[in-house]
Amino acid sequence: MTMTNAIPHYRPEWVPLAGHQLRLSGIHFDTIRVQGVRGEQIASDLVEATDGDAGPVVCEAVGFRWMYFLLAPGAARTHTWPLGVQRFGGAGCRTVTYIGIPALDGNTWPLQWYSEPTPTTPYVDPDRLHATLGLRCA
């Protein structure tokens, strides 16, 4: 698994300074969650398609190895997502979901950044993510 290198010192206010913290999806960001190898493939395709500036993608190192694609608040509802893809946050969600967000540096295990937020791409583009998912699910 490769991680992209973001511009140093860019840290949105919802990213903790150390360790990791839970953040409410739908407030700071919406979340699209994809499990395991499928999620890793989507993230890899997205990073490649954006020349390493895909926006914030968090991955879990244990368990189901979820990949969390962080979209701007309200952006997840702009698409109907494929089967097996979970959406958290935004209008129409009936549950409250907290997402673990790692710091940009230091020990954040079991969470880590697959792609960090940058000033040019503070969130994953929902249209690009939806297209990438569509290609992988076809």
Describe it for me?
The protein is built from two helices and seven strands, in the order E-E-H-E-E-E-E-E-H. It has 138 residues and is α+β, with helices and mostly antiparallel strands. It has one domain (29-137). Helix 1 packs across helix 2 (126-137). The chain is globular.
Features:
138 residues, alpha+beta, two-stranded antiparallel ribbon
Describe this structure in a few short sentences.
The chain is α+β, with helices and mostly antiparallel strands and 138 residues long. It has 2 helices and 7 strands, in the order E-E-H-E-E-E-E-E-H. The protein has one domain.
Helix/strand layout:
Elements: E1 20-24, E2 30-34, H1 36-49, E3 57-60, E4 67-71, E5 86-88, E6 98-102, E7 111-115, H2 126-137
Antiparallel strand pairs: 1-6, 2-4, 2-5, 3-4, 3-7
Reading side by side through the largest sheet, how are the strands ordered? 5-2-4-3-7
Oligomer: single chain
Order of helices and strands: EEHEEEEEH
User: How many E-type strands?
Assistant: 7
The secondary structure category is alpha+beta
The coarse overall form would be: globular
Uncertain runs: none
Largest sheet at a glance?
5 strands, antiparallel
**Number of domain modules:** 1
Distance between the termini: 23 Å
Helix content: 10-25%
Q: What amount of the residues lies in strands?
A: 15-25%
Number of helical segments with 4 or more residues: 2
| Mean pLDDT across residues | 89
Q: What is the CA-based Rg, rounded? A: 14 Å
